[in-house]
Amino acid sequence: xxxxxxxxxxxxxxxxxxxxxxxxxxxxxxxxxxxxxxxxxxxxxxxxxxxxxxxxxxxxxxxxxxxxxxxxxxxxxxxxxxxxxxxxxxxxxxxxxxxxxxxxxxxxxxxxxxxxxxxxxxxxxxxxxxxxxxxxxxxxxxxxxxxxxxxxxxxxxxxxxxxxxxxxxxxxxxxxxxxxxxxxxxxxxxxxxxxxxxxxxxxxxxxxxxxxxxxxxxxxxxxxxxxxxxxxxxxxxxxxxxxxxxxxxxxxxxxxxxxxxxxxxxxxxxxxxxxxxxxxxxxxxxxxxxxxxxxxxxxxxxxxxxxxxxxxxxxxxxxxxxxxxxxxxxxxxxxxxxxxxxxxxxxxxxxxxxxxxxxxxxxxxxxxxxxxxxxxxxxxxxxxxxxxxxxxxxxxxxxxxxxxxxxxxxxxxxxxxxxxxxxxxxxxxxxxxxxxxxxxxxxxxxxxxxxxxxxxxxxxxxxxxxxxxxxxxxxxxxxxxxxxxxxxxxxxxxxxxxxxxxxxxxxxxxxxxxxxxxxxxxxxxxxxxxxxxxxxxxxxxxxxxxxxxxxxxxxxxxxxxxxxxxxxxxxxxxxxxxxxxxxxxxxxxxxxxxxxxxxxxxxxxxxxxxxxxxxxxxxxxxxxxxxxxxxxxxxxxxxxxxxxxxxxxxxxx
Length: 653
Prior knowledge:
With 653 residues, this protein is an alpha/beta fold. The protein has helices at residues 3-7, 70-76, 90-98, 118-129, 176-184, 247-254, 369-372, 390-402, 433-436, 438-463, 465-485, 507-519, 530-533, 540-549, 560-563, 566-581, 605-613, 626-637; strands spanning 17-20, 54-55, 79-86, 108-115, 135-144, 161-169, 190-194, 212-214, 236-238, 262-264, 287-289, 309-311, 332-334, 354-356, 378-380, 386-387, 415-417, 496-501, 527-528, 551-558, 587-591, 617-618. It has a domain at 494-646: Toll/interleukin-1 receptor homology (TIR) domain (Rossmann fold, 3-Layer(aba) Sandwich), CATH 3.40.50.10140. Residues 494-637 form the TIR domain.
């Protein structure tokens, strides 16, 4: 570092913050009253710290004059930042900038916190226009007043780009053209006027060299550049956060911009063109940003045919209609934050490679998306309220087969419904094949039903269920008829001590042994036998039921012949039903002959159960035991019954 550099400290220039970018071995000298040292924080020799800025203070003191080589400043400074510029010091700033003629290294100038009137602003701008400066940025320009017409000289300039941010015009009454024509006719490539409450901009008076225009966050409306044919070189137009309403008028605005490639209309008040409105876009437009507007699905009827990238994020689109004009060149489509309920198809977007549908209302995306959109390399579908169901599982399965086309998988893909799965990542959601395959489910259900029917049918046949159902039906029908036909006999009166059930093949023993021994002697027992007590005209079932109900006991003479008799089975069934319905102990089993288990039919499972659980009387072969047998049997059925109409034991009713 030279001796002059060691003496260079922090300074203020006319109250303006002064920032310089230097080359190597800078030496500064000034012949007039520009600078004075006010601090001692300059980097020492050998330090790696770079020189970034120097606050310089103007003073009238002759003793504080510094001797710098100002010519060296002109030849080494590339960027200059000044602030706090007012009408009081703007003349001296103009004098300073006048020294940066063409050929000097200064290319970038930033002016901040300016408060000057119109004439001083124009003089400063004219000075910059004819200097070596190529890029001028002015931030926070206030008190811009006394606006009037001026003859600005645009020729012979190095300027390429001009940017204004937060310009405040304090004049209430002035000609708008005097303000706008200064900017509209500038012969530079890029112009930015942002956050300045700009309400209009004139069409240039001649073919403009503008290639970049940025009017961010102003108050521009649909009247901008209508019928303007002078912006033939314009490639980028940014109109974000203004007050445009008609998409159709925006399309006509671009129709004469033959070179326009990028248009940003985001965060406006745009609504879709109606059926009666027509759209005419420039054919050169390839990128269009329409995000954060009020567009619906009808917007797809008003889009540039050669569009390559389209941003429709944060609108009111519920679907992508079919039958629209094909956008054959469209490669990137952003539909995030809309109201879509399903993935759009690619029938109108044959070249689509990127699709963003995050934060919509998609519950179950269509599984055929990847089939219809085979050129899509990246799909963003996260942050939707996914309903974890079979349809969604098909989509997840296709994701695994697609080779990672789902962007931000799996973090952004979670179940929203049902509630018990809320928050579960889709990769962790699984359902069985049987639950999701309707055909397989139906076949399985049919097979299970057939197996169940077969099992039930086998059991019914094996257990003779139809026979029991038929008997139960007959019993209920008999009871019903007895209830309606003989209301005077609703209260059952016992008329017999016992009802005898036996096989016809065992009738000799019943008639020769059982009946005589029970009906003779003192304390005679009145027996009910089908041959003498069944009432003619009634069905056999009705007679069996009536006899069982009017008898205190039911005696069953068991033998191999008994189990082979159908009517014996009826009688046993009804007596057993009576046993349970009246909660009584009315059955008496007499085993006349041993019954081998293998000859008992399956439907006689009640007989098997009764013989296994209940005590039965076995007819003894020895005559010496017969007396005891009859005594036990009499004791089992002993009961006092009234003898009706003077009838005696043994007489037929």
